[in-house]
Amino acid sequence: MNFPILSSLILLPSIGALFLFFTKSDKKNNFTGKYVALFTSAVNFFLSIYLWILFDPTTSEFQFVEERIWIKDLINYKVGVDGISILFILLTTFITPLCIISVNNSIKERLSEFLIAVLIMESFMIGVFCSLDLVIFYLFFEAGLIPMFLIIGIWGGARRVYSAFKFFLYTLLGSVLMLVAIITIYWLNGTTDVVELYNSGIDIKYQNLLWLAFFSSFAVKTPMWPVHTWLPDAHVEAPTAGSVLLAAILLKMAGYGFIRFSLGLFPAASEIFTPLIYTLSVIAIIFTSFIALMQEDMKKLIAYSSVAHMGYVTLGIFTIQQQGIEGSIIQMISHGLVSAALFLCVGVVYDRMHSRLINTYGGIVSIIPKYSILFMLFTLAALGLPGTSGFVGEFLILMGAFKDNFLVAVIASLGVIIGAAYMLWLYKRVVFGKLINTDLKQMFDLNRSELFILSCLAVPTLFFGFYPDPLINTIEVSISDLIDQYNFKLASKT
Amino acid sequence: MENLQLVLPEIFLSLSIMFLLILGVFKKNSSRLVQSLSLAVLIVTAVITFNETIGIIETKLFNNSIIIDYLSSLMKIITLLAAFLVLIISSNYLKTFQIFKIEYPILILSSVLGMMVMINSNDLIVFYMGLELQSLALYVLATFNRDQIKSSEAGLKYFVLSALSSGLLLYGCSLIYGFTGSTNFNVIADQLNSNEYALTFGIVFILVGLAFKISAVPFHMWAPDVYEGSPTSVTLFFTMVPKIAALTVFIRFLYVPFLNLIDQWQMILIFLSIASMLFGAIAAIGQTNLKRLVAYSSIGHVGYALAGVAAGTNDGIQSSVIYITIYIIMNLGLFSCLLMLKRDNNYYEKIDDLSGLSKNHPMLALSLLIILFSLAGIPPLAGFFAKFYVFKAVIEQSMYFLAIVGLLSTVVAAFYYLRLIKIMYFDEQKEKYDTDHGFWLKFSLTASTLLILIYFIFPSQLIEVVSRINII
User: Fold this and answer.
1) Residue ranges per domain, chain A?
2) The complex's ipTM?
3) Are B302 and B217 in contact (CB under 8 A)?
C-alpha cells in the first residue's frame, strides 16, 4: 500500500478550496461552487470510510504511516493513524459534507468564500488528528484558528466581532505555551516525532511543567472550566455551520490531545495532575449544567451543555481505565453527532423565525411534527438515554470513574440528572405547551436537505446506541496498549 | 589588486553614485533615467557581490579593517535586493506627490553604500563611517516631501535624535579605544580584560547607539513619528533596509570583539528584546494611523530578531537572519498594500480607510489578510516559522523567560493585527480605491504574499542559505 491515503485526506479539501477560489463567484456559479465543495468533501468521506475498512484494529501500531523530510535535520512530516485517531477523522469527514449541505438555508452572502473556509478547516482538522509529529500537530492545531476566526467574524451574528476576537485570542494564548513545551521537548529528546517520544519517554524532571503547558492549550480548547467562557460566545455568534464545526470537531482536538500527548508522553505528570482534572471536570459538569438550566438562548444552552459533556470526556480520559477512555472517545464521537444535530435543529427554527430565544417558541409540535420528532431524538441522545450513543459514552465513563474514584463518580452521575433536566426543559418549552406566538403558524416543516442532514445524523446516533461494537472494536486495542504503556512507564519512572 | 576585487561592489556602487549625480545635474528631466539606472546599479552590485564574494572564506582587508565573509555577503545581497524593491515600487507614490526627482534614487544608493560599509566593517571607525553615511542620506530622505510640514518635522526629529545617539555611540567607541588601544575588532578581542568596567560602559554606549538605529525599546521614540511623517515609500525603506545593516553590526560587534563578555551584554540584549516585543505589541493597540501602527509592529519584530542575537549561539544568529529576511518580505507586502490605498491622487493611511476592503477589493484584502496573519505569527504562514526558529534557538539556551514573554506578546500583538482584519472583513464597505497600480507594485504584493503562503512547502531552502553563517 503505497498510496498516501492520509495525505490525500488532508490535501483533498484544500485542493477543492483552491478550485473554488479560481471559479468566479457570481450568483450562478455559487451553485456549482457548492457542488464542488460537496463533491470534494463527499469524496473525502468515502476515502475515509475506505481507510476505516483497510484499518487493522488488532494492532496498536500506527498505520498508513507516511514520513518525509520536511525541514532537514529538524522536523519530518509524519502522519499515521491508530485506533484512537481514526474515529475522529471519520467524524470530521462525516460532519463536513453535512455542514456544506446546511449552508443552503443559512448563508446568504459570500457563499464561495464560506465554502473555502470550511474546506480549509477540514484539511487542518484532519491534519490535527493524524499528525505524528508535535510541530506538525501544532501547525494544524493553530492554523485552524484562521478559517474559524473568519467564519465567526464574517458570517456571524450581532456580536460576532467580540466573539471572534475572544475565540482567537483565548485559543492562541493557550497554545503559545504548548509551543514552548514542544521546542523544549525537541531540545530534551532531539526529536519531536511522537512515536520515538513514546518509546524513549521524557525526563521525569520536566514532565510536570511540560504537562501544564500542554494542558493550558487543551484546557482552553476543550474547554474546561474556568476557561470555557469563549465557547458560549463563539457558538452563539457563529453561523449554524460554524457552530457545528466548532462543537462537533474543534472541541475534540483537545480531548484527542489529552489522550495522545498528555497521557502518552507525560504519564508521571498525568498521575500527579489527575486530581486537578477531576476537580475541574466535576465543576464543569455540575456548574455549567446549572448555568445551562438558566439560559434563555437555545444556542447558548447547547453551548453550555457542550462544556458539561466535555467535562465527562476529560473525566473519563484521566481515569486511565479501559472503560473510561473508551467511553471518552465514544462520548466525543456521540457529542460530535448530537451537538451538531442540535445546533442544526436550532438553525432550522432560527432560519424561519430569526430568533434563538426559547420564549419565542412553544407549542410547535403540531406545526412542524417531523422537526419535533428529530429534535426529540437528539434531545434524548444529549441527555444520554439508553439506546442512543450518548448513553454508551456516559455509561462507560462513569464505570471507569467508579473504578478509580468513587466520590467523583457519584458527583458526576448527579450531573446526568441536571443534564436531563435542562435538555428536557428546553424541549418542553420549545416544542410543547400552548401556541402563544401566532407568527409560529407560518413555519413550514423540514425541507428536503434539512431532513436529509438530520436523518444522516440520527442514524449513527441510534445505531451506535444499540450496537457500539464497531466503535469499540476499533479503539479497544489501541487504548489497552496505551494504558499498558502508561502503567509501564509509571512503574519504571520515566 | 585582489583586495580591490573583493570590495568591487562598494567601488562600483560609489562610482555609479557619482556618475548618476553628474548625469542628473547636467541632463534635464532625467529623473526617470536616473531611476532606471539606479535600479540597474543595485542589481549589478548584487550580482557582483554574489559572484565575487559569496563563496569566499573569511578574508580581512585593509589592515583588517574590513571583513568579507559569508554573513557580510549575504546581508549585502539582502540589503541590495530590498533597496531595489523599495525603489521600484515607490515611483508611483513619488509621482503623485511630484517628488519624483533624481535625488531620491541617489540618496537611496548612498545610504545603501553606507550600509554595505557597515556590514563589512571590522573596525569601529569604519563602522562609524558607514553608519553616518547611511544616516545622513536617511535624514534627507525623511524630509523628502519637503512641502509637507510633517515630513520636514520627521526629518528634523530623526536628525536631532540620531545625532544624539551617534554621539553616544562615538563616545562608546572612544572608551573602548581607550581601554584596549585599538579600534579593530580582532585586536580588541585579544586585548580584552574583562575586569575593566569602563569597557562595559563602552559596550553599553555602543549598544544604545545601535538600538537607536534599529529602533529597539527604550530607544524607539523617534520611530513612530518619523515613520508617520516620512513619505510612505521612505517609511518602507526605513522599516526594512537599515535594520538589516544594524542587525549585522549587532551580530558582528557583539560576537567578534566581545564574545567573552557575553555575560555582560546578554542581559542588556534580553532586556532590549523583551521590552521591544512587549512595548511594540501593547503600544500598537491604540494606533489609528497605519504607518504608526507599522512603526510599533516593526519595533516588536525587532525585538524578536534581537532575541535570536541574545541567544549567544550560531543557531541564534542564523535564526535572527531568517527572521529579518521573512520580516522584510512581509513588510514589503504590507507596504505594497498601503501604497495601493489610493484614490484621486490621495493616499489613505488611517486604519478606518481599510473598512470593508474585502468587498471592494477582494484580492487586495486577501493578500493583506495573509500578510497580517503571518505578521501575527500564525501557522502555517512564514511568520510563524520565523518565530519558531528564533524561539528554538532561545529555548536551546534555556532562556525560558524570554521565550514565554516573547510568545505571550505575540498574543497581544495578534490583537491589533486581528483588528485590521476585522476592519477589512467585518466592517461596512466604503468608496473604492484606484486599481491602476502599475506592474511592479502588483508584482511585489503578489510575490510576497505567495512567498509567505507557500513558505511552509519549502522551509529547508532558507535554512540552508543561512546555515553557512558561522561567527563563533
Assistant:
1) 5-492
2) 0.90
3) no
Phi, psi of A446 (to 5 degrees): -55, 135
Cβ pair A161:B422 closer than 8 A:
yes
Three cell numbers, residue A363: 407549542
Q: How does the average pLDDT of chain B come out, rounded?
A: 88
Q: Do A165 and B411 count as a contact with CB atoms less than 8 A apart?
A: no
Question: Does the pLDDT value for residue B449 go beyond 90?
Answer: yes
B35 confidence band (pLDDT: 50, 70, 90): confident
Residue B80, CA distances (Å) to A108, B23, B131, B231 in order = 49, 22, 16, 20
Of A69, A154, A177, the CB nearest to B426: A154
A183 vs B392, B456, B464: nearest CB: B392
Give the largest Cα separation in chain A, rounded. 69
- Cβ–Cβ below 8 Å for B414 and A180: no
**A20 burial type by CB count under 10 A (0-12 exposed, 13-18 middle, 19+ buried):** buried
* Nearest-angstrom CA–CA distance, A394 and A416: 9
Grid cell locating A475: 479503539
Question: Residue A468 — φ and ψ, nearest 5°?
Answer: -80, 5
Which residue has cell 548625469?
Answer: B23
Query: In terms of Cα–Cα distance, which of A98, A102, A94, A22 is closest to A51?
Result: A94
pTM over 0.80: yes
DSSP-derived secondary structure for B237-290? HHHHHHHHHHHHHHHHHHHTTSGGGHHHHHHHHHHHHHHHHHHHHHHHTT--BH
**Would you call A161 and B460 a contact, using CB atoms and an 8 Å cutoff?**
no
The partner residue sitting opposite B378, judged by closest CB among A74, A135, A142, is A142
Q: What is the pLDDT of residues B182-223, one digit of tens each?
A: 888 888 888 876 677 788 888 899 999 889 888 888 888 888
Using a CB-CB distance cutoff of 8 angstroms, which residues of chain B are in contact with residue A135? Answer: 388
Domain limits of chain B? 258-472
Among A122, A187, A189, A183, which Cα is nearest to A151's?
A122
Instruction: Tell me which amino acid residue A357 is.
Output: L
For A75, phi then psi, to 5°, come to -135, 135
Residues of B in contact with A74 (CB under 8 A): 463
How far is Cα A45 from Cα A173, in angstroms, rounded to an integer? Answer: 33
**Low-confidence stretches of chain A (pLDDT beneath 70):** 1-2, 24-31, 105, 493-494
Q: For Cα atoms A284, A287, A289, give the angle at the middle one, nearest 5 degrees.
A: 90
Residue B460 predicted with pLDDT over 70: yes
- Residues in A closer than 8 angstroms to B388, CB to CB, are 135, 179, 183
Chain B residues inside the 8 Å CB shell of A145: 378
